Amino acid sequence: MAETLSISENLVAESNLPQVDFNNIPFGRVYTDHMFVADYVDGQWTDLRIEAYGNMSLSPANMALHYGQSIFEGMKAFKDADGNVLMFRPEENAKRLNRSAERMCMPSIPEEIFLSGLKRLLEIDGDWVPNLEGTALYIRPYMFAMDEYVGLKPSLNYRFMIFCCPVGAYYSQPVSVKVEEEYSRAASGGTGEAKAAGNYAGSLYPARLAQQQGYDQLIWTDSIEHKYIEEAGTMNLMFVMDGELYSPALSGTILPGITRASVLQVAEEWGVKVHVGRLAVETVIEAHRAGKLQEVFGVGTAVTVSSICRIGFRGEDFELDMENRELSQKIASYFESIRYGKQEDTHGWIEKV
Ligand SMILES: *Cc1c(COP(=O)(O)O)cnc(C)c1O
After folding, report:
1. Is the pTM for the entire model greater than 0.85?
2. What is the CA radius of gyration of the chain?
3. Which of 47, 63, 250, 321 is the most exposed place for a label (fewest CB within 10 A)?
4. Is residue 237 within 8 Å of residue 296, measured between CB atoms?
5. Exposure class string for 325-341: b at 16+ Cβ within 10 A, else e
6. Residue 223: pLDDT above 80?
């Protein structure tokens, strides 16, 4: 392994950093100077390198484009008051990428390559991690097929890459969601628990219909009965009913969010009663009618915590009280303070670059 871990570097002569207005960064449209790349050739990860962020050339018959062997991760790095760059549970992303890879018949990437490539990239582009409150460096590791071949079979060659985008202070507005009872994001036995590109393509059309009906996002339900709550677009869901926290169990169709797992663990440590299991839409609606549905929120790396202010279900809208967001706000501020190194990280979740 030691020899494959030598990472070659071909760095830019001049950084693009001076051209970036950190007070006004459009999400996902500004990229740091460099990217990390590794190629899987002849059954081996090879040619580990850091090079200028830029376009690459692909065969028109690239298999990822045609048959969708393409998986990704999403994570964030933060800067503390002393200028250190901090990551949140990066090895969990490496593990999840490899679980996605297995499901999509792609090779696993040694965690060592994922993590040392990431670390080296963050050392080189560390100045790009913004330090204003609420800002972060969004990190996108991903892997895709590289074979030039027409025909359905797993590719033999792959590429793994990491690039980064500084993201501005994100004041998340509460969102409205529609309970989706016709379309499905994921079916039992399908690829819902993999962070696989195709899952997201399939969700766009139902999401557009919901937007035309005045909702920001969807709450997906199980594909068999459309009765049980699964998750939202790129967030796992949490419900506070009668002071207790409920979240759908990972059933194989739900993306196992690292934020979700961390939030559930912390809530339990705080003494909140946590229920992870099947959660029927009807249960939530009945709780709302009985005045017991206190908070609904999504959790994920991109948003951390995103409050839900309105749930649309069968043509009826159920409004949530935005004044009472005690638990979700406590969760949001807890994660914010450990990620920026403002509060001691007692879980060993934060890693310094
Ligand atoms: C990435 C993602 C999440 C959130 O996962 P985190 O690890 O918390 O960022 C939730 N649902 C879907 C569908 C996702 O793609």
Report:
1. yes
2. 21
3. 321
4. yes
5. bebbeebbebbbebbbb
6. yes
Residue 267 CA to residue 183 CA, distance in Å, equals 32
Q: Among the CATH numbers 3.20.10.10, 3.40.50.2300, 3.40.50.720, 3.30.420.10, which is that of 175-339?
A: 3.20.10.10
257 lines ligand 1 (CB under 6 A): yes
Distance of CA 8 from the midpoint of ligand 1 (Å): 32
Q: Which amino acid is at 204?
A: L
Q: Does the domain formed by 8-167 have CATH 3.40.605.10? A: no
- As a whole number of angstroms, the distance between CA 98 and CA 101 comes to 5
Q: What is the pLDDT of residues 128-171, one digit of tens each?
A: 999 888 899 999 999 999 999 999 999 999 999 999 999 987 66
Q: Cα separations (Å) of 128 from 182, 199, 300?
A: 43, 30, 22
Q: Kindly state if the Cβ of 260 falls inside 6 Å of ligand 1.
A: yes
Which residue's alpha carbon is nearest to atom 5 within ligand 1?
257
301 lines ligand 1 (CB under 6 A): yes
Q: How far apart are CA 263 and CA 306, in angstroms?
A: 13
Instruction: Report percent pLDDT > 90 for the chain.
Output: 91
- Judging by beta carbons within 10 Å of its beta carbon (0-12, 13-18, 19+), is residue 112 exposed, middle or buried? middle
Q: Is 139 helix (H, G, I), strand (E, B) or coil?
A: strand
Is residue 253 within 8 A of residue 186, CB to CB? The reply is yes
